[in-house]
Known about the structure:
Blueprint: H1 5-33, H2 37-56, H3 70-84, E1 90-91, E2 94-95, H4 96-113, E3 118-125, E4 131-136, E5 149-151, E6 155-159, E7 162-171
Amino acid sequence: MIFSKKAQMEMMGLVVIVILITLGMLFLAQFALNEQPQKKIFTRKGLASSTMAAMMKTTIEETNCYGLQFEKDLLEDCAGYKVFGSSTHLCNGKYSCDFIADLSTDLLNSTLGQWNKKYEYISKLVSTGDVLVNVASENGGCLSRKTERDTSGSFFLNTNVGLVESVLYICE
């Protein structure tokens, strides 16, 4: 079959239109199926930051430690205990570092754990690198994983034994 010049041009035009429509549909499908990772990262960062801020401002409502603040009183006492070996606060029969670990586990499991989020909370002395508290979710922590993780950012506390850095990681 031989087509006229005009019919050949019309067929070429239709082929170009079909190719352009196909490319447009491919781009549309790619953007429609994208999970928006930036939104997920922003959400995890916001969650980590607000959870850490709330945890640091927590006031203890337990028996002999009633009225003590997590950050100001207990974390500072924990740092002193690691350096000097003596503790001012003994909460429910536990030294401040152990009490903080238990309290952190309870607080984080009742929030992030209930939402099936994996997390890891670490407080350490900046000058020596000594870890004061390290609490990970029941599913495992975030530091040893090769998955995406976001952080609350560093929360610093100036104590009489040096600077304490606390960080909360949330991961996939």
